[in-house]
């Protein structure tokens, strides 16, 4: 079986958590991720909220969501992506989990704040605001990873 590249692994996992694991032959883990995604998605009414958000019916999107279930989604989703990435990365790569973990944290915070935060007077809702929060989460994770790796480089003395 052909080894997945890092980009391919992440893109399949973005399509549906568990797909990348299934493609590389990790069937138990892949099925578990798919089932967990399905359960959390259905129990939280996530697909309906996505549809309503894309139709810009933000108040209805808020109304249909079950936040007690949806709060699991960011960590599940980002962990499945990290696991896919990890399976394709070189063994020497360090701290690759940081952007994924910070992305999950920030998406969760964006979800919690989605009813309150307005940008230029616009409430972006429970789908778009968490997606917007992913960007600073990833950036902070990459910066922290860079700083840690830079601090580990041995300094050459002359």
Please, how many helices? 9
Please give the share of residues in helix: over 70%
- List the domain count as a whole number: 1
Overall strand count = 0
Task: Note down, in words, how this protein is organized.
With 158 residues, the protein is an all-alpha fold. It has one domain (6-150). It is built from nine helices and no strands. Helix 3 packs antiparallel against helix 7 and helix 7 runs antiparallel to helix 8. The longest helix is centred in the last third of the chain and has 28 residues, at 125-152. The radius of gyration is 18 Å and the shape is flat. The relative contact order is 0.12.
Topology overview:
Layout: H1 6-15, H2 19-23, H3 27-44, H4 46-54, H5 58-64, H6 67-70, H7 73-88, H8 97-113, H9 125-152
Helix pairs in contact: 1-7, 3-7, 4-5, 7-8, 8-9
Structure keywords:
mainly alpha, 158 residues, 9 helices
Task: Give a concise summary.
This protein has helices at 6-15, 19-23, 27-44, 46-54, 58-64, 67-70, 73-88, 97-113, 125-152. The chain has 158 residues and is mainly alpha-helical. It is flat, with a radius of gyration of 18 Å.
